[in-house]
Amino acid sequence: MGGPSQLGASTGKVRFIPLSYNQVESQTTALRLILTLRPEWEHNGGKIEFIRFTDGITNTLLKIVNKKPGLSAEEIDNEAILLRAYGKGTDLIIDRERETQNHELLMQHNLAPELLARFHNGMLYRFIRGAVTSPADFQTQDIWRAIARRLAEWHAVVPCIASAREALSTEINGSEQLGISAPTPSKKDPALQAAIDNAAPGKPAPNVWTVMQKWIYALPVSTEAQKARQANLQKELTKLVSEFSNRPGLGKDSLVFAHCDLLSGNVIVRPRPAGAAEPNAPETVSFIDYEYATPSPAAFDIANHFAEWGGFECDYSLLPTKSQRRDFIREYIRSYFTHLKSGQADNDEETEVNRLFEEVDVFRGIPGFYWGIWALIQATISQIDFDYASYAEIRLSEYWAWREECDGSRAASGRDMPLRERRWAQES
């Protein structure tokens, strides 16, 4: 699947189409959008077709093609467009303006398909030819090496850009149990945004810590149990920020521009060029869907990707072993310093590999915390047939298991090591 035969493109302001996509009237509303963008498609003798992709669990994704007579499949794909419509309520979780900025920023570095237009509840962008990976593909050496190289390129070349905020003088309105002075009258209170932006003091916002803070504020609190859970998660986030936000790492301020959602459905294996001079050239991949992309420690982005080796089913037996993680990180480090234009003579490769390997190991529990909070919100807003509530418990249990492993409480209690921790500790 994917968006353009070429990546990157226009630098002009992205067009806005004042229409919406409606799941109930999918073909009608999608056709209206595509003909607004490409009016010539209506009368050029082609047949417009819609192909639905279902790799995600929050958005609708349609590939739209114009099958004109005499064109090859590749030529048709080169003109194909992807329509992505956001799931209901997801703007509670995702900053859509920021997502557009991310897409345009990546286009400038030839790392994203051309963004053609936005509409009220989604966007239209070029199709990337290639094959979507599955979790099983992550076990294939050529694929994971390509992912490591591309992820390192993201982290090395794309700058972290802070969001400009208005100066705020308003008193913060929030929840007393979260250390804020008064009940929150509105999720959009500007002072509440200031509290989110300051979740990790000294770090430019947004970043992965401010994202988690925003999500904790968005959790449902209609019952005493929900309020207690929110307070508990807030306590843990404060602890995580204290322990992790100022650790040394790659990038400026120890932050890199991270994808933060590098699951199999967001990795496209690109086709080899026809008549390529190097038939045995390495595989190349592209990443799609940048709605969660934000400045983050590189170790978080890599640990999060490793967690996705198990897929939505969280099959921990598929997670990379120590030797697999080390090989991935070695490939990543080589690519990172190459793209950083810093010669390996200036950096001891094995020292860098060991340092990042240990850092990813330390971060291994945090993706479970991140996606656990996310799933608790999705369980209340999503209309998609997916058991978010159970998924939330599975992911949060990864975090608690990591905590118990780190503080020794699991061993002290005499309980067996959980499968995920056991797999993570496995050598090969």
* Largest sheet geometry: 6 strands, mixed
Q: Tally the helices: what do you get?
A: 14
Structural class: alpha+beta
Helix content: 40-55%
Dominant shape = globular
Which architecture of one domain does the CATH hierarchy give at level 2?
Answer: 2-Layer Sandwich
Q: How would you state the average pLDDT, rounded?
A: 87
Q: Quote the CATH topology of one domain.
A: Phosphorylase Kinase, domain 1
End-to-end Cα distance: 32 Å
Q: Per DSSP, what share of the residues sits in E-state strands of 2 or more residues?
A: 5-15%
Return the CATH class of one domain.
Answer: Alpha Beta
Radius of gyration over alpha carbons?
Answer: 22 Å
Strand order of the largest sheet: 1-5-6-4-3-2
How many strand units? 11
Pick out the low-confidence regions: 1-5, 167-187
The succession of helices and strands, N to C, reads: EHEEHEHEEEHHHHEEEEHHHHHHH
Name the CATH homologous superfamily of one domain.
Phosphorylase Kinase, domain 1
Enzyme class: transferase
Family: Belongs to the choline/ethanolamine kinase family.
GO molecular function: ethanolamine kinase activity
InterPro entries: Kinase-like_dom_sf
